[in-house]
Amino acid sequence: VDSSAERVLAGLDPEQRAAVTAVAGPVCILAGAGTGKTRAITHRIAYRALSGEIAARHVLAVTFTARAAAEMRARLTALGVGGVQARTFHAAALRQVRYFAPRLLEGRPMPELLDSKVRLVTLAAARSGLRTDRAAARDLAGEIEWAKSSLVEPAEYVVAAAKALRETPHEPARVAEVFAAYEQIKRANGVIDFEDMLRAAVWGIEEHPDVAEQVRAQYRHFVVDEYQDVNPLQQRLLDAWLGGRDDLTVVGDASQTIYSFTGATSGYLVDFPRRRRDAVVIRLVRDYRSTPQVVGLANAVIRQARGTEAQLRLELVGQRPPGAEPDLRIFPDEPTEAAAVAARCRQLVAAGTPAREIAVLFRTNAQSEAYEKALAEAEVPYLVQGAERFFERTEVRQAMIALRSAVRSTPAGTPLVQAVVDALAAVGWAREQPPPGGAARERWEALAALVQLAEEYARTPNLLPIGDATVATARGGVSGHAVTGDPVGWVERAVSLAEFGEELQRRATQQHVPTVDGVTLASLHSAKGLEWDAVFLVGLADGTLPTTYAKTAEQVEEERRLLYVGVTRARQWLWLSYASARSPGGRPRRPCRFLPQFDRSGGERATPTAVEGRKPDPRRNRVVSCRICGATLLAGVDRKLGRCADCPSDLDDELYRRLYDWRARVASAQKVPAYVVFTDA
Ligand code: ATP
Ligand code: MG
Question: Spelled out in words, what is the top-level CATH class assigned to the domain 318-380+519-617?
């Protein structure tokens, strides 16, 4: 074996090594969060490629998010392996469908891909005499997504929904009717949805031997991360790709199944060793990601879980040095909670933690806005995960094509906004027009957002302070869409139409790990597989987590797993918080039932790590902070000293405090971390 392949084995524990070096054939890693599953599969690919066993270009590594795919590619590049296809199911299917479309469609145009089902579902519901508001239409769309991901046709829906104990948004027969109407409208309009796209990829392989041959020649070695959240449609596609071959490595954690509402099931993972009797099965329990304190809370949250996967679970064993206890806080209302979180982020950044190592995670995307605002006010840069979607919208794509062609024909010196408006007018959009209804309205809104963006871009002379730029773009109504992170970057660059167009293009196609140094705002769902030094789990009120929509016992269990996913994202610091009312004086709320008791004092630190049914140890509730830097101190020696291990004890407090102050000021002035180095002198 090549020495570079040997190097790939360094830094792995014996079980991980076994997974990495297992011979070609089915391999299954069943293990908890942070135990190095993703690391193991990444190293397995690298090891096999570097030792010459396989060619990197024949590997298809399926990940759950584009960001995870980008991270895997980055890790592989660092190990000296390029050319691996790391993609989501969707991206891999889309690529395949696009590639074969000219052949399979015989010249017919490739159908437009629907970004969201909601609009067509509303039409379909109206056709069956159901009046729906947006929320009701979304519920129906979710149900249709479940059915299609579960390979259930409209005619089979009623039986399948009953069998799966679905909590249906309407009488099952009505849902089936809407489902059928939706399919019909979709076909009549020549559009397809995401599930259709996966189905098209399956159909291409199953019905066309030449396509199958070509696809299978390309993809020979398969790796699937987060396999606990695969749905029947995705499994069918995986089987189509495999075509009976067995060079497949799957990894997952049944305790992190958080997509069963869309038809995902941990069954494929859990049953894998039974289905593939020759599989090498590996279990990992050492947690390399988080401090033992965070691991303790994670174990406590998931220990209470009910369900089939409960028997398979192993307690995580923390490997990292001890850190701070998870911090639980209660605030009187959401704006206060958001402001406190933003202030804490600012402190962390000032003390040297890069903003990209911080995440604020929430249950629903609607919660994002309060944090965007608070972070902007605190002048902390941030990026909203999943916001790239804006650029996938049809109308935005069209607008961008128009912009790019405008770049070629616009005389130099034309003001940016004017040029953008002219370009958009060329595709039939006029901003003075009142927003029309239905489909046209969405198009109008997306274009309006683009123009607004251009206006902000044009108006901002060179560099705004981070906060102002963020507020400006947030006011433009596009934050959470177009302004993913880097608001400074947007305005920093010289303003010209050409550059604006290029920037849009870059953002539309970008699929790399964000290089922007901003705090990540993300939903718990989209945080899966990722990790940060500091994590804030916010809005942990009962009714938000678990959501009021979780009615059945299974749905409530899924919410518990969602919390487990959240807790296990933190490497070093974990803050959990909730507001006892949404707005000042609002209806009182209770804390998330999966958590330790929060005490009732506003903004005060609450009971640490006492979880359901376990009595808190009163001695551990008294919080002691370092006299110098303010870090929370652990029980034991450093509590007695009154200062943390990072603050040496042989100089007087006043001098240290001044040094820390100075460091914070340098850090915030330069917007880079600053370090104070203590030497003997
Ligand atoms: P999740 O279930 O959240 O996806 P995971 O099991 O995929 O977690 P990884 O992301 O692979 O875990 O690893 C978690 C962290 O631990 C990473 O920072 C990784 O680099 C580190 N790590 C994994 N294995 C080791 C090891 N043997 N030695 C040191 N660090 C490790
Ligand atoms: Mg992982």
Answer: alpha beta
Q: CB–CB of 450/424 below 8 Å? A: yes
For residues 25 and 286, what is the distance between their CA atoms, to the nearest angstrom?
25
Residue 419 pLDDT exceeds 70: no
Closest C-alpha residue for ligand 1 atom 27:
12
Structure token digits, residue 94: 């889309």
34 lines ligand 1 (CB under 6 A): yes
pTM: 0.75
Beta carbon of 65 within 6 Å of any ligand 1 atom: no
Tell which atom from ligand 1 comes closest to the C-alpha of 40: 11
Q: How far is the CA of 272 from the centre of ligand 1 (A)?
A: 22
For residue 187, what are its two tokens?
Answer: 């076909």
CA of 529 relative to ligand 1 center, distance in Å: 9
Q: What is the pLDDT of residue 466?
A: 28
Residues written for the chain: 681
Give the residue from 396, 372, 343 showing the smallest Cα distance to 473. Answer: 372
Q: Using CA atoms, how far apart are residues 241 and 384, in angstroms rounded to an integer? A: 33
For residues 515, 519, 522, 526, the Cα torsion angle rounded to the nearest 10 degrees is: 40
CA angle 434, 438, 441 (to 5 degrees): 40
Least reliable range by pLDDT among 462-476, 570-584, 611-625? 462-476
DSSP annotation of 48 reads H
Q: What is the ipTM for the molecules in this complex?
A: 0.99
User: Within a 10 A sphere around the Cβ of 612, how many other Cβ atoms?
Assistant: 13
H or E, element range at 95: helix 89-104
Confidence category of residue 679, pLDDT binned at 50, 70, 90: low
Q: For residue range 180-209, list pLDDT tens digits in order.
A: 999 999 998 888 999 999 999 999 999 999
Q: Where exactly are the structural domains of the chain?
A: 3-93+201-284, 115-192, 318-380+519-617, 388-509, 624-681
Q: pLDDT class for 504, splitting at 50, 70, 90?
A: low
Radius of gyration of the chain (CA): 26
d(CA 94, CA 115): 13
Distance CA 372, CA 386 (A): 14
- How far, in Å, from the CA of 293 to the mean position of ligand 1? 17
Which residue type occupies 296?
G
Looking up tokens 């958001």, which residue turns up?
Answer: 338
For the Cβ of 13 lying below 6 angstroms from any atom of ligand 1, the answer is yes
Distance of CA 381 to the CA centre of its chain: 18
Token output for 90: 């969707």
Give 657's pLDDT tier (boundaries 50, 70, 90): low
Residue 579 burial (CB count, 10 A): 28
Whether ligand 1 lies within 6 angstroms of the CB of 39 is answered as yes
pLDDT reading at 506 higher than 60: no
The pLDDT value recorded for residue 351 is 93
Q: Does ligand 1 come within 6 angstroms of the Cβ of 288?
A: yes
Whether 3-93+201-284 and 318-380+519-617 share one fold: the answer is: yes
> Do 501 and 407 contact (CB within 8 A), yes or no?
yes
pLDDT value at 598 more than 90: no
Which residue reads 């008791």 in tokens?
Answer: 597
Domain at 3-93+201-284: CATH architecture = 3-Layer(aba) Sandwich (3.40)
pLDDT at 156 over 60: yes
